[in-house]
């Protein structure tokens, strides 16, 4: 089991395993989720197998970290949480989260996973800040991030073109105030 940093009351975060191929395949190829992940084309199982094979790389080498969110009581994989665009010099990274099943959303799993990743990022990676890009109309994600202390710092107008129209996207930041 991962260290206490990545373990909560409801969920724990773990590294990707080869057995996660079907879950990652399902998520990356669900067109309804593409606007959340800015994916444009499906991923093959071959490409995802290669990705999983390389997912052991250190965040300093890969510049990203993807962990699986698992229910603590059943070990069921609920979704993914990502650090991306990791910038060691500036001590910052982007943060994204996805609870795959709509049925499992709103039950506190995402909030706890986010808290665990924030804690890990600030305590273990010594990051100064995290940021998130959230579509203007994605009120559940806005609430989720704001409850964890993220603040909107800008609105990127017509930032993403989705299904023939342009959408605005907020930039949210969380500054680690406990950093020296």
Describe the structure.
There is one protein chain. The chain is α+β, with helices and mostly antiparallel strands. The chain has a domain at 4-126: Gcn5-related N-acetyltransferase (GNAT) (Aminopeptidase, 3-Layer(aba) Sandwich), CATH 3.40.630. Helix content is 27%, strand content 34%. It has 6 helices and 7 strands, in the order βααααβββαβαββ. It has helices at residues 21-28, 34-37, 45-53, 59-62, 109-123, 139-147, and strands at residues 11-15, 65-71, 77-87, 92-99, 129-135, 151-162, 165-175. The chain has a 7-stranded mixed beta sheet with strand order 1-2-3-4-5-7-6. Strand 2 (65-71) and strand 3 (77-87) form a beta hairpin. The radius of gyration is 16 Å and the shape is globular. The model is unreliable at 37-43 (pLDDT under 50).
What's the layout of helices and strands?
Blueprint (H helix, E strand, L loop, with lengths): L10 E5 L5 H8 L5 H4 L7 H9 L5 H4 L2 E7 L5 E11 L4 E8 L9 H15 L5 E7 L3 H9 L3 E12 L2 E11 L5
Parallel strand pairs: 4-5
Antiparallel strand pairs: 1-2, 2-3, 3-4, 5-7, 6-7
Helix pairs in contact: 1-3
Keywords: Transferase
Organism: Leeuwenhoekiella nanhaiensis
Protein name: GNAT family N-acetyltransferase
